[in-house]
Write a structure and sequence with these properties.
Alpha-Beta Plaits; 11 helices; about 25% helix; globular
Length: about 375
């Protein structure tokens, strides 16, 4: 185990504790409990900019706890220590033609960091998921088991390596998305799935936000089995896929699966959506590039610390919230999850009360400040 002095999220000259084993981690937590000392828990720090800074004198870094400990492609199961980079896991899965179906996003570039720094532990601790959550759920829906250390310094495990092993299964799900506040995980086990053979994206051009919301709802409610539904308003569309979408608003519907099935579903859905607007198509890697950029919030990766909000709201009310905010503040926005996930960038102050009150007026929801300057977050 190493202990370093560094400037980080836990304050200036914070002490960084870096255990290499679960035993060392248990001892650190137990010592912190005995001294009534809070710890800031992180992996590589790629999500350090989320919300308020943790007020702790010492940081517990899990970056040394790395390595895939089990991977059985035929059983669709993978276990890894929590500090293992998600990029390493995705490369391993890709070689076997598999993937994490919940499509975890990468917050690093939004905060000025290199892509691919996030860890599997951070993904599970934050319950991250990308555009495919609409159809396949978030990390919580794919967790099979965890090993962890409780806030009392006690080691425990929950779940197992197969779905039918339900001992403690719900506890694993409860820890997913707890941001390290309930326990510090050391190992996680996840189910993985085969990659799809074919991918295509139907693009509707020039729709206003309200019309796009209706089109996305129609697509997701159809028999086409779409795995993604997003809308990029005018000018935001040009900030993904190296500008290949152009400036016009783009409403995106993703279809995945076996080639003949995707072709048939694409033809059916395209014919239905032609009544709404001009239909275009993105195939293969062109489609994947657009959804990667949406997943990683690339339209707002601008090298600034302008406030960025993540709003989780009723899908049919997202565009109303954005319209109301546009009348009161300078904002940019785009939509994922059929309009239920709104990414919002403010030009000046985060306007927290304005954002929260607007959400309350349009059916409620949840708002998380995912980027802002240090002075605003303090």
């Amino acid at each position: 185990m190493s202990e370093l002095r560094s400037t980080g999220a836990a304050g200036p000259a914070a002490s960084i504790l870096r255990p290499e084993t679960a035993i060392q981690l248990r001892d650190i937590v137990a010592a912190a409990v005995s001294h009534e000392e809070p710890l800031a828990v992180e992996g590589t720090g790629s999500k350090r900019g989320l919300g308020r800074p943790v007020q702790a004198a010492r940081t517990l870094s899990l970056s040394a706890m790395t390595g895939v400990t089990l991977y059985e492609p035929e059983e669709l199961v993978l276990s890894a220590r929590v500090g293992t980079p998600i990029a390493e896991i995705e490369r391993l899965l890709d070689e076997a033609g598999q993937r994490l179906e919940f499509e975890p996003l990468d917050y690093g570039p939004l905060h000025g960091l290199e892509p691919g720094l996030g860890t599997i532990g951070g993904v599970v601790a934050c319950n991250l998921a990308g555009p495919r959550r609409l159809k396949h759920g978030a990390a919580r829906d794919h967790i099979l088991g965890v090993h962890a250390v409780s806030g009392r310094g006690e080691m425990f495990k929950s779940g197992g390596r197969v779905v039918k092993n339900v001992t403690g299964y719900d506890l694993s799900k409860g820890l997913t998305g707890s941001f390290g506040t309930l326990a510090v995980m050391t190992d996680v086990t996840l189910k993985v799935l085969p990659k799809t053979e074919t991918e295509t994206t139907i693009v509707l051009r020039g729709l206003a936000d309200d019309a796009a919301t209706g089109a996305m709802a129609a697509a997701m409610g159809s028999s086409a089995e779409a795995s993604g539904a997003a809308h990029l308003p005018m000018y935001v569309a040009s900030r993904v896929a190296d500008g290949h979408l152009g400036n016009d608003a783009a409403t995106l519907i993703r279809l995945e699966g076996f080639g003949p099935s995707v072709a048939a579903r694409s033809a059916y859905l395209s014919a239905a959506l032609e009544k709404v607007g001009k239909v275009e198509h993105l195939e293969g890697e062109a489609s994947r590039a657009v959804w990667r950029d949406l997943r990683d919030i690339r339209p707002f990766v601008d090298g600034t610390d302008k406030p960025v909000w993540r709003l989780s709201v009723t899908p049919t009310r997202g565009h109303e919230i954005v319209m109301s905010l546009r009348m009161q503040a300078a904002i940019d926005a785009f939509y994922d999850w059929q309009g239920g996930l709104v990414w919002l960038r403010m030009e000046d102050e985060p306007e927290a009360e304005l954002v929260r009150e607007t959400i309350r007026c349009f059916g409620g929801g949840h708002a998380t400040l995912v980027r802002a300057s240090e002075s605003v977050r303090a």
